[in-house]
DNA sequence: CCCTGATTCGC
DNA sequence: GCGAATCAGG
């Protein structure tokens, strides 16, 4: 199966949405986990919680004589490139909104909701309130954790309600990208609320994704994040 | 063992 | 460019 534009778009969004390579591969179908990873890297997306340390790049590309096609391969000393000390700060993302929107994606950004669809929400997916938990299963993936929470959260008006499920193909800069459920499930979707200006999530999910740094003595006891969130000490 | 992503390298 | 094989950490 070739990598069509759609498949690539799906791969990107699922990858950025926090889905694992296996989940993405399963979602796309007809591709292996390795294919997904390889494609993701070729696309330039990479570096998400990787179990493997980036320390040494295993120069052990030993003799892979398995396929035994090229018997003699002159292996000149490969210059190992050493990454210069580069401070990791993807933090500034929260403020600067970059209009790097896919080509055929921006068209769906402005969609009216003629169907209120009241009382029709999926029973399995609940909107968690502050302090609530949303664990659907052990294999569930994490929402992207913010690298650097802003000091203050800007208040914004909560939208009345957007009952329509937002598919990953309908994501845009304007809607909340918080994943609901997990990829692969039929009703997996994204929040789709109007975003808190300057943030990738709506107001409610900003409250889950970002933890305000409160002055001493006014700390919040339980972090609302399921797990894996930045620990407040 | 299972899982994960990273990397290499023959194709 | 693609992805199986392989590696390495959890």
Automatic annotation (TrEMBL):
InterPro entries linked: GcrA (IPR011681)
Where do the record's region annotations for Disordered lie?
42-164
Q: Where is the composition biased (Polar residues)?
A: 106-124
Pro residues compositional bias, start-end: 141-152
Put simply, this protein is called GcrA cell cycle regulator
What is the protein's species of origin? Answer: Parapontixanthobacter aurantiacus
